[in-house]
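Quick start: what a row looks like.
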Amino acid sequence: MKETALPFHDRHQAGVVLAEKLAPYAGRSSLLVLALPRGGVAVGFEVARALQAPLDIFVVRKLGFPGHEEYAMGAIASGGVRVMTPLHGLSVTPEEVAAVVAREQDELVRREQLYRGHRPPVSIEGRTVILVDDGLATGATMRAAVLAVRQRHPAHLVVAVPVGAEDSCQALRSEADEVVCVATPSPFRAVGLWYKHFPQASDEEVITLLEEAHSEHELAVKKQKNPFPPQQAHPPHPRNALVDGLQQHLHALTGAAHDYDPLMQLIGPARFALLGEASHGTQEFYRERAAITRRLITEKGFTTIAVEADWPDAWRVNRYVRGLGDDADAASALSGFKRFPAWMWRNTEVRDFVEWLRDYNTGRSLDTQVGFYGMDLYSLFASMQEVLAYLERADLEAAERARYRYSCFDHAGEDSQAYGYAASFGMAPSCEDAVVQQLREMTRRAAEVPATPGLERDAAFHAQQNARLVRNAEEYYRTMFRTRVSSWNLRDNHMVETLQALDRHLGASGKPPKMAVWAHNSHLGDAGSTEMSDRGEWNVGQLMRDRYAGDAVRVGFSTHHGWVTAASDWDQPPQRKRVRDGLKGSWEDLFHQTGTQRFLLALRDNSALRKLVEPLRLQRAIGVIYRPETERQSHYFHTHLAGQFDAMIHIDETHALEPLDKGEVWSAGEAPETFPSGM
């Protein structure tokens, strides 16, 4: 066998050499090349091209030893896999390990979203998988990848690198079906020594190579299916015809009192109006949603508003709007929203709506007042305190039992993520049994309260709901270090559980309540009609439609350009950011081309319109983080609009939501180009 000449020129040349060693796998229909970003992607690109196989990424993060990050003390990979490597003569505390893992977990999630963009992960089950990197030093990163890939049941798993330490290559042979190390020089020292050009690969390079590989493979597949394409292709829908079709069906919103008459007709007798938003920081989304909700209350008898917010903080608002709290005004009632992102609910639009609710409820009996409730599950420790506070008033012995059960969390110091990490990786006991026992006790207690509507029954329900939240939040934080899909599904399932609990509680008198639900489009549209379903994710809109059919109406919002209030990274201050024009070919771009600034599309009962909007297109989703510099990868996903929503409201140019606590960054206007960016 010809000896490999070292050093390699660069990663691409190394990939070509590696592909020659893997030639027997070329052309297999089940073949998949998975590259470890960043450095492994250039190598994997050449391997996938030579073997005529699809290329995807598999993200793994090295755990650098604190203070000596060049030494790997382990690695983490998608799927919650963690591998630790002993470093003789060096010691590290569990707290230091937890800090490193938390940081690298955030980076792992960021890179998956950034690199893959709208494309879901390629299925691994039953396939021949070649796992590629640019080299093996300690092997910890590759070992974590192998363990994680194994969990997805490939038929055959190959580890392939251009160069590696002999002992690392040998160790992996017991875990992979085959290991291909082209060269194993000794002494090895470091991967970069065996390349002439070994610059740090950039995110842009990874994204470009993945897109190019995807395009090349799709083209190759099409050629195999149809080697003699027709001379002239005809597009199924000329753009101008599609825009003309939309213009015939849109209902312009002019600011008149009758603007939403078609929407009121569409909602009809339905009990759940799911009112979305395309960002958590757009003034018009909040303002129009409030206007629609006021009509639902005054014209259709809606008595419940459930929002994407923590239960204890929203309960304080609920008490204020019903004249039960101690707060002097709406701004004070909203002051419980302190956790990032506080501006989602501490803003001028919500403040004004809360004051309207208070005025509307004044003079009404408790059972006919409109309530304001939260349905999110981030308030793990705050909800524990609410349970204890209730029991200390109602039953001191029960309070002691609850305090003992919840003491299981004491080691986390009221840090939800610290608890989740420690419990997930066996560094501390799981509190699952304790929170389940407490929920059962609170459920029994609530059942013993007379069914007659009143403050006593509301207080018992509030305590029970907090116990339910603690139980679900415990599982959420314990699973968030495993897969994004698990935590997403748990969160949305909790939101639906909350809506069902409210339905039972408020409907106990015999009259089913009607609810307006406020949350992001990504929660309230039907996930089954978006690429979320390809990742195994479901959401509130899908679950509510499954359970309540036509009794749940889903309304989405969109914008083409303008301004938004968002942060550049988690826990960063809110900024007033410019929203870029909608991407060409996206729903936002298509709506912009109609030339109508504000309009409603009533989709559900209009078969001609549904046919127009059935094809898959990109849709923008801005959460509490907005990264214009990576907008395509960070903020767009594919949707079938006809199945996602029953109605869509488009406002072409929008403005930033005004926080009650602006801070210097927001008040200064658009952040400078040098301001830190993040997801």
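That is the whole record. Residues 229-238, 671-679 have pLDDT under 50 and may be disordered. The CA atoms of residues 375 and 495 lie 5 Å apart.
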